[in-house]
Write a structure and sequence with these properties.
With about 625 residues, the chain is an alpha+beta fold. It is built from 24 helices and 16 strands. It has a 6-stranded antiparallel sheet. A 5-stranded mixed sheet has the order 8-7-4-9-10, sandwiched between helices. A 3-stranded antiparallel sheet has the order 1-3-2. Residues about 1-5, about 170-175 and about 550-555 have low confidence and may be disordered.
Length: about 625
C-alpha cells in the first residue's frame, strides 16, 4: 500500500486541490524552490512535472489532504441510496448540536450522560428539529451514545461510511443487471409456471456462455419474491384466476328485497357415489333454486349430468310450490342458456318467458362470487348431507378417504350401495331441516320464518303453462298418420290432430305447423300446442306401435286393425256434417242453368233420344 510520504502528485492534481492553475502552481514552486521530477509518457510531448508529497511545504500538504478527504466524503455520500444518505446527514446535524451542548458554560458541571438525556428530551419536544423528528422519530440514550462513538471515529478516519446505518446498507441496491432482471421476469412470469430452480439453472448456463460470473441462487430467489403478487397471478395463473383472486368483489345487500323478487340457481356434483340400475357407480348432479331474500330452498332435483331438463323441471317445481319469481340470477352454463330456455332460431318461445320471466340475469363466467348466495350452500350440503354417506369421496384428492374403492366394492356385494332414491329420501329431510330448523347466520332466523315474514303476494302459474314450459318444444308438421317423432307415429284418439291440421300442400305453399311438447322422461305421448302467441293445448298424442310380421303376433295385429278401423269410424263420424250427396246435384243443376226451361229441354231430349236420365 502506498504511504502518504511516498505519494507522487501530478501538477494538475495538486493545482486543482489548491484552487490554482497549473501555470500558477509552477511559478509558485520555482519561486519557493520546491523539489520536483519529470514523468515521461504523461502530459504534453510525453512529459509532465510531478512532486513528492513529503517534499512539499507542511501547509501545502495539509491543504491537499483536507481537500482530498472532503472529496472522498462527498463521493461516498453520493454513492449511498437516498434513504441512507438522508440518515447520515440528519445524524451529523444532531451530533454537531450535541457537541455544542457539551461546550456551553452552563453544562460544564453536568455529566455527559445528563447532557445527552436533556438533549433527547429537547429533541422529543421538537426544539432541535421538527423535520428530523417527523422523519426519523425518537431514539434512546444508548443509541445516541453509539452515534457519538461513530462520530468520533469519523473525525479520526474521515470515513463517512462509519455514520451510515449498519442495517440495510444494500437496501434498494441489487447485484442483478437490468438485462438479468428482465430474463428472470420474462421466464418466471410464464403461463407454463416454471419453478425458480429451472429459471436459475437456465440463467447460470447463460452466464457460462457469456463467460461472466452469475449471481447466487439466493439473490435470484429474493428478486423473484419481490415481484408483485398480482403480477405473478396474472402472468402465471391466467386472467381468469387474476380476476377471481386479485380484483375486488361486488358486495350486495339483500335487506331491501322481498320474497320471490330474486331467486338464484346452480348445479353441483355431489361428493358421494350412488349406483344406477345397471350396477355402475357415479357421482350424481344436483340442481337447486334458492330465494335470495329469505335463503329458503325452493326446489331441487338429481340427475347423472347437469342438463336443461334438470334445470327446467327444478324451476317448475319451485314455481309450483312457492310461486312465480320476478327475476332470476342464473349460471352461464349450457344447461341454463340454450334454445329451450330462450327463443331459438325457429322462434319457439323460451321457458323463462313462458313462466313470465322476461330477462334473466346471468353470472359472470368462472366467477363463483357472483352466485355467492347459493355457492356457500354447497359447503353446508357437504358437511351436513354428503358426509353422512359411506361413499363420501371428499372435495378433492387430499380429502378423499383412503379405502374408498374397497368400501364401494364391499357395499355393492352386500347390496347396501346407496341409490338415487335414497338421495331423494335423505335430501328431503335435509331441506326440511335447512328451511325450518337451522338458523341462518345472515338473517338470524330460519329461512322459513324469513319467508313467512314477508307480506307481498305470491303469484301462481297455471298447470298447463307449467307443463308447456317444462316439455322439450319443437315445430312439427301433421301428416296423414299423425306426427312422426323418433321413428314412431303419434295420434290422438279423437282424431282432432289430423282432422284440423293435416293438409296436402302445393310446392310453394307453406305447411301449417304445430308446436310439439316432448316429455324427455316419457316418450309414450306428445303434447301438441298451437303455433301462435297463445300456445294453447290442442291434444295429447299417444304413440302407435309398429305392426309385426310374426305369426305369433296375429292376435295383436288383429287388435291393432280393429283399433285403426275404430279410429277411421270416429274420424268419419266427426266429419259427417261436412258430407255431400248426389241428390243435391239436381238443385245444383237448377242453380247452374239458372232457368226452368233448361230442365224442360233436357226432359224433351231424353224422351226423343231415349237416353238414360242424368246423362246430360
Amino acid at each position: 500500500m502506498e504511504t502518504t510520504s511516498s505519494r507522487i502528485v501530478l501538477t494538475k492534481d495538486l493545482a486543482s486541490s489548491l484552487g490554482m492553475t497549473p501555470e500558477g502552481l509552477t511559478k509558485k514552486a520555482r519561486r519557493e524552490g520546491w523539489k520536483y521530477s519529470i514523468q515521461n509518457g504523461i502530459g504534453r510531448a510525453g512529459k509532465t512535472v510531478s512532486y513528492k508529497l513529503d517534499d512539499l511545504p507542511e501547509e501545502i500538504q495539509k491543504n491537499f489532504l483536507f481537500v482530498e478527504k472532503q472529496r472522498a466524503k462527498d463521493i461516498n455520500l453520493n454513492q449511498m441510496p437516498e434513504w441512507q444518505r438522508r440518515k447520515v446527514i440528519d445524524k451529523m446535524y444532531l451530533l454537531d448540536c450535541l457537541e455544542k451542548e457539551f461546550e456551553k458554560l452552563e453544562n460544564r458541571r453536568l455529566s455527559k450522560e445528563k447532557i445527552m438525556k436533556l438533549f433527547i428530551e429537547s429533541f422529543k419536544k421538537g426544539k432541535i428539529s421538527e423535520e428530523i423528528l417527523s422523519r426519523n422519530g425518537t431514539f434512546a440514550l444508548r443509541t445516541l451514545q453509539e452515534w457519538l462513538r461513530q462520530y468520533k471515529e469519523y473525525k479520526k478516519t474521515n470515513d463517512i461510511d462509519v455514520l451510515a446505518p449498519s442495517y440495510g446498507k444494500k437496501k434498494g441496491i441489487i447485484k442483478l443487471t437490468s438485462s438479468d432482471q428482465d430474463f428472470f421476469i420474462k421466464n418466471y412470469n410464464n403461463p407454463n409456471r416454471l419453478p425458480i430452480t429451472t429459471v436459475w439453472t437456465a440463467y447460470k448456463n447463460k452466464c457460462d456462455q457469456e463467460k461472466r460470473e452469475p449471481v447466487c441462487y439466493s439473490t435470484a430467489t429474493n428478486f423473484i419474491r419481490r415481484i408483485p403478487y398480482i403480477a405473478k397471478v396474472l402472468y402465471r395463473e391466467g386472467e381468469e384466476t387474476f380476476k377471481k383472486e386479485c380484483l375486488p368483489h361486488i358486495h350486495r345487500r339483500t335487506d331491501d328485497l322481498v320474497r320471490n323478487e330474486w331467486i338464484t340457481s346452480d348445479g353441483h356434483d355431489l361428493n358421494l357415489y350412488v349406483i344406477d340400475s345397471k350396477g355402475r357407480e357415479y357421482r350424481p348432479v344436483i340442481a337447486v333454486w334458492k330465494d335470495i331474500a329469505s335463503r329458503i330452498i325452493l326446489g331441487y332435483n338429481f340427475n347423472k349430468t347437469e342438463n336443461t331438463e334438470l334445470i327446467i323441471e327444478t324451476l317448475a317445481d319451485s314455481i309450483k310450490n312457492y310461486g312465480k319469481p320476478q327475476n332470476i340470477k342464473i349460471d352461464n352454463g349450457k344447461a341454463y342458456k340454450n334454445k329451450q330456455t330462450h327463443i331459438n332460431n325457429e322462434k319457439i318461445i323460451g321457458t323463462y318467458k313462458i313462466f313470465g320471466i322476461e330477462a334473466p340475469s346471468f353470472s359472470i363466467p368462472y366467477n363463483p362470487e357472483g352466485k355467492a348466495n347459493v355457492e356457500s350452500f354447497w359447503n353446508v350440503v357437504d358437511n351436513y348431507f354428503s358426509k353422512i354417506f359411506p361413499t363420501y369421496c371428499g372435495k378433492n384428492k387430499d380429502e378423499r378417504p383412503k379405502h374408498l374403492k374397497e368400501t364401494i366394492e364391499k357395499l355393492k356385494k352386500e347390496g347396501k350401495m346407496p341409490t338415487i332414491q335414497d338421495l331423494y329420501i335423505e335430501f328431503e329431510k335435509f331441506v326440511k331441516w335447512y328451511n325450518e330448523t337451522r338458523v341462518h347466520s345472515a338473517i338470524a332466523m330460519t329461512p322459513k320464518q324469513k319467508w313467512d315474514s314477508y307480506t307481498n303476494e305470491i303469484e301462481k302459474i297455471s298447470e298447463d303453462k307449467l307443463i308447456f314450459g317444462t316439455v322439450h318444444r319443437r315445430h312439427a308438421t301433421v301428416q296423414r298418420d299423425g306426427i312422426l317423432f323418433n321413428g314412431h307415429w303419434y295420434r290422438d284418439a279423437e282424431g282432432k290432430l289430423t282432422r284440423e291440421y293435416f293438409k296436402k300442400t302445393r310446392r310453394n305453399e307453406k305447411k301449417k305447423k304445430v308446436v310439439v311438447g316432448i316429455d324427455m322422461h316419457d316418450f309414450s305421448k306428445l303434447f301438441i300446442y298451437t303455433d301462435d302467441d297463445k300456445n294453447e293445448l290442442i291434444c295429447v298424442a299417444e304413440k302407435r306401435n309398429l305392426s309385426s310380421w310374426k305369426k305369433t303376433n296375429e292376435a295383436n295385429n288383429l287388435n291393432e286393425l280393429k283399433a285403426i278401423k275404430k279410429e277411421i269410424k270416429t274420424q268419419k263420424e266427426a266429419i259427417k256434417t261436412f258430407a255431400g250427396s248426389k241428390e243435391n246435384l239436381k238443385d245444383l243443376k237448377n242453380f247452374l242453368y239458372n232457368t226452368k226451361e233448361d230442365t224442360n229441354i233436357q226432359n224433351k231430349i231424353e224422351k226423343e233420344v231415349k237416353l238414360p236420365k242424368g246423362v246430360l
